[in-house]
Amino acid sequence: MSKVSIVRCGSYDPGEVRRAVASAVAPLGGMRAFVRPGARVLLKPNLLIPAAPERAITTHPAVVEAVIGLVREAGGEPFIADSPGGPLHNRLGMAALFRHSGLSEVARRTGVRLRAEPDSIQVPTPGGQLLKRLDLLASWREADVVVSLPKLKTHNLTLISGALKNPFGLVPGLAKPGYHAKLADIDQFCDMLLDVVACVRPVLTIMDGVLAMEGDGPSTGGLPRALGLILASPDPTALDAVVCRVIGVDPGGLALFRAAERRGWWPVDIALEGVPLEEAAARNFRLPAARRAARPVRGKRWVSRFMTRALTPRPVPRRDRCTACGDCARMCPRDAIAVAGPAAVVDDERCIRCYCCHEICPEAAVGLRFSPLGRLLRLAGLM
């Protein structure tokens, strides 16, 4: 039986967040059930890009600060580490990320250490079903335990960006495109995500769903959506399953849960604590445009290519927004993007629909466009 706790939290007022986070962890045994005195605790928020907290792209600093307090009350020694995608993981990029996300101010108030070193290590993945070795931030090895602090967001590739995907942030930024390139098949990609979870072994996940993200997440293409929730569980699969129910999605239809089922993580019996699911459920939660881009079509290569092009949206840079910064080209795992003149250009034949460019663009300049057939099928309600 996997416990998942849901607690109401109507704002990011520090006092209200502290009470909500403590209430969410209490039915699970409290923080002392996960953190022993003297333990070094890696707090892993979602720090995708430098963005202000009100944009709902990153884990809110009030949630991070509340967890810092609980860890210290349990006698733990917390520090914060994460790696944004692409070229941002360097000392200058991380300084900007911490500043924009509000964590620099949290560090000033609490004295917690923000780890900005880009150093990485290769570690074996015991029991890994796809990967036998994995690139991780070197700071991960210094931790006795990991507490994962994801944001409740949509995601154009995996549909949700939550408990099961958040540990992928400990893979160094420039290594992430390599995993996308090698694992273009969505089922393989999700198997890799679960190998990361099995290696990182977060003992507890506390999710920021106070201000969530809907639409074309997980970055600048998504829209903030007030849900007023803090969720917590020691089981990331169960937590994501509850999140799916909150936003009106059947978890059984997602590649993440197919991967979890293959390794015996799903289905599981879930014991809900706190707010009943029917009260936490969001009405008319907007899902990503690419939510049907899941399992690749098997068969002849030309059939697979046609179906991929017809039924999945392609990234299209907008000339009115693109600043030709080149971040998308550096992030692309298949070198499918070039900066030509005033804007980026995507080679559709090389594009594998991983949407890294959409995710990393600081100007929200990479839109997602369906083919005429795809638009017709969507209008007919068939996608």
Describe the 3D structure.
With 383 residues, the protein is an alpha/beta fold. It has two domains: 2-280, Rossmann fold; 301-379, 2-Layer Sandwich (Alpha-Beta Plaits), CATH 3.30.70.3270. Helices cover 31% and strands 23% of the residues. The chain has helices spanning 14-25, 61-73, 91-101, 103-110, 176-182, 186-200, 236-246, 255-262, 277-280, 301-311, 327-331, 356-360, 372-379, and strands spanning 2-8, 40-45, 77-81, 113-115, 120-124, 133-137, 145-149, 153-155, 159-161, 202-215, 222-233, 270-274, 314-317, 337-340, 343-346, 366-369. It has an eight-stranded mixed β-sheet with strand order 4-3-2-7-10-11-1-12. A two-stranded antiparallel sheet has the order 5-6. Strand 14 and strand 15 form a beta hairpin. Helix 1 (14-25) crosses helix 2 and helix 6 packs across helix 8 (255-262).
How is this structure best summarized?
The chain has about 375 residues and is an alpha/beta fold.
Key words describing this protein structure:
383 residues; alpha/beta; Rossmann fold; Alpha-Beta Plaits; eight-stranded mixed β-sheet
Radius of gyration: 20 Å
Largest sheet: 8 strands, mixed
The amount of helix comes to 25-40%
Using the 3D structure, state the CATH architecture of the largest domain: 3-Layer(aba) Sandwich
Range of strand content: 15-25%
Distance between the termini: 35 Å
Widest beta sheet: strand line-up: 4-3-2-7-10-11-1-12
Give the number of helices: 13
SSE order, one letter for each helix or strand: EHEHEHHEEEEEEHHEEHHEHHEHEEHEH
> Could you say which overall geometry the principal axes of the C-alpha atoms support?
globular
* Number of E-state strands: 16
Task: Kindly report the average pLDDT value.
Answer: 91
Structural class: alpha/beta
Q: Assembly type of the shown chains?
A: single chain
CATH hierarchy class name of the largest domain:
Alpha Beta
CATH topology of the largest domain, by name, is Rossmann fold
Number of domains: 2
Query: Which runs of at least 5 residues are low in confidence (pLDDT < 50)?
Result: 292-304
